[in-house]
Design the sequence.
């Protein structure tokens, strides 16, 4: 029991938040200089060719880096983007995104670079093509059909209501018939109770 | 005797078919996920040219590039001192590097680790003997990203022409069970490459 409690306390103390990387997972590698962080790997040109856009810096670079980092999955985390994660791998990847954007690569080229080594898994949102299309189409289709079914039901109920009510169905007619029989049988008794209550008896 | 007959509920066959048409594909997708190992992401680099790199050597003897390793099959092992299974895998790789060193080249790439820690760890693990293969330092993790590393250890097998032929996720662990013995698995892969 004490060991379990100690382990739990250790985990809570070393973990920044549940589901996030523990603190010891950060800052494990050698510190990279600013120059090292902004230098592109030798493989970049082989994978996505030379940059076609203008080099970027300042607030525009930061904004595009953050937007792209939100679209790229942190490979060592549980469902977190590179932008959301504090893991060292995520920070390294964000530095690479920044280096690629600063060099003039487009968003699609940056995504393609990471996809070349990690596959489509690296995209937080899979491409809407091929088999993946089912994920977009089925919920929309289900919503559309549900709305259609609701509209038809409301329309049918609206048609039945004026003058016909529930008696239009055989079940409704049966209910009405049984109520009138009960009223006939209990009528004198109800009348007697009402008279007695009014005269103060009972 | 009269038995009251309860009316059978009316089934709308078109509605049922539409419902099944929508739910069955989704169920299929969910079920396929149950049989999929979330750690197995495949290897997008298979049969592709291995990403180029030039990295500093841990032993301080300059840098080593993939270009320099061309001509012989190359085994690239991403590892770290904080990785729990790496100490168990290390003797398997050392042994293979000593045995097949004249036919293949082994290279270790340290993943998110510091030079001093790596040197001390290797000194201890090799019991003072020099390593059978060089270890490189991947500052900033660029090479790990280029190879699609998402955990350690991961081992990539690159043929003499520089094409990635195979990727092993997880360690090559020694085992008494021949079907689970990482030493035999490594020999089998090396045999296929030679």
Sequence:
């Amino acid at each position: 029991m004490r060991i379990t409690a100690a382990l739990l306390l250790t985990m809570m103390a070393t973990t920044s938040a549940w589901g996030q990387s523990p603190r010891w997972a950060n800052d494990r590698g050698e510190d990279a200089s600013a120059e090292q962080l902004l230098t592109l790997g030798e493989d970049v040109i082989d994978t996505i060719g030379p940059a076609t856009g203008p080099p970027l810096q300042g607030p525009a670079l930061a904004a595009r880096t953050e937007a792209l980092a939100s679209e790229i999955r942190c490979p060592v985390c549980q469902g977190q983007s590179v932008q959301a994660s504090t893991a060292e791998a995520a920070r390294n990847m964000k530095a690479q995104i920044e280096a690629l954007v600063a060099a003039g690569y487009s968003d699609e080229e940056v995504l393609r670079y990471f996809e070349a080594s990690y596959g489509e898994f690296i995209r937080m949102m899979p491409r809407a093509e091929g088999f993946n299309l089912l994920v977009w189409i089925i919920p929309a289709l289900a919503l559309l059909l549900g709305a259609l079914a609701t509209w038809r039901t409301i329309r049918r109920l609206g048609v039945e209501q004026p003058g016909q009510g529930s008696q239009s169905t055989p079940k409704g007619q049966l209910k009405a018939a049984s109520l009138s029989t009960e009223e006939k049988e209990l009528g004198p008794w109800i009348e007697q109770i009402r008279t007695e209550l009014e005269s103060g008896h009972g | 005797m009269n038995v009251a007959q309860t009316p059978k509920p009316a089934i709308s066959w078109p509605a049922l078919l539409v419902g099944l048409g929508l739910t069955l594909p989704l169920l299929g997708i969910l079920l396929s996920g149950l049989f999929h190992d979330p750690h197995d992401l495949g290897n997008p680099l298979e049969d592709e040219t291995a990403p180029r790199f030039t990295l500093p050597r841990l032993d301080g003897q300059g840098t080593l590039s993939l270009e320099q390793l061309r001509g012989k099959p190359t085994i690239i092992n991403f590892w770290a001192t904080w990785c729990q299974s790496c100490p168990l895998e290390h003797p398997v790789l050392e042994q293979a590097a000593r045995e097949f060193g004249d036919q293949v080249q082994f290279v270790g790439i340290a993943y998110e680790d510091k030079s001093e820690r790596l040197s001390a760890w290797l000194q201890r693990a090799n019991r003072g003997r020099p390593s059978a293969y060089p270890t490189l330092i991947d500052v900033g993790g660029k090479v790990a990203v280029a190879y699609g590393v998402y955990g350690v250890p991961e081992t990539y097998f690159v043929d003499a022409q520089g094409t990635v032929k195979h990727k092993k996720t997880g360690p090559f662990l020694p085992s008494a069970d021949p079907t689970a013995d990482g030493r035999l698995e490594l020999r089998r892969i090396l045999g296929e490459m030679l």
